[in-house]
Amino acid sequence: MSKSSITVGQYISGKSILHQVEPRVKLISTFLIAIVLFSVQTWQAVGVSSLFVVSLMLLSRVSIVAMIASLRMVAVFLIIFSVFQVSAVREGAVLFTIGSFPIYQEGFWEAGLVFWRTMLLFLLAILLTATTKPFQITNAIERLLGPLKRIRVPVSDIALMMSIALRFIPILKNELFLIRRAQDARGFYTNKKSISKRITSFIPILVPLFVRSLKRAEDLAQAMEARGYKSNGKRTIWKQTNWAFSDTLALSVSVGTACLIMWL
């Protein structure tokens, strides 16, 4: 994977409209649109939801090429899954045949929907983390789940774990890039082998990646312990965000779009 691509959890500094939206609005909107995407069954709903995500990509002013590049690995797995789904579903009219194997309309449509939904979900996740700083996501989750504190749910710990998990994704991506570069410099090439050998050749890459991720997790735990972190301690927020009228308008647009997608 190229370093020029953007991964979930990687923040891209900017001053776009999407960067300035309150983090709680972005979290609620992402969660709402993600749920609605699984109710899509018509071409009209596909078009509206796709137009909505593309509009967000343009408003974010984040490199569209970099966001699309980050979907390459996901697309490979989705294509393989779609081939299996197309071959398994045998309902509806026959669209065409490959040799003596018929391709049915329902299988083709369902595979296309799964592929499209997953790609849009990944784009929404990338847009959320690319336009929202990690500590803002943590604070937004904690404030949205605040009422659960009354029933002694460890909201702060849940928000912290989610923030750390998101932050580790780009870190592991960078570690993978460094390991690949180091092994290529030692004559370890994977791009000139067959598909089966390329798959097995990833094992020597995953082992050091796993070891280095454990080392980073240990360093993080020691750093938190050295700073006196306690799971039940009281913490303050350095930069408090305020809900403005523009945030209400942005949330209204998201809710309206979700309702329109469900209606279509």
Automatic annotation (TrEMBL):
Give the top-rank taxon of the lineage listed in the UniProt record for this protein.
Bacteria
The way this protein sits in the membrane is described as: Multi-pass membrane protein
The UniProt record lists the keyword GTP-binding: no
Key words of the record:
Membrane, Transmembrane, Transmembrane helix
Q: Does the keyword Zinc-finger apply?
A: no
Among PANTHER family, the record links this protein to:
PROTEIN ABCI12, CHLOROPLASTIC
Protein name stated in the entry: Energy-coupling factor transport system permease protein
Species the sequence originates in? Shouchella xiaoxiensis
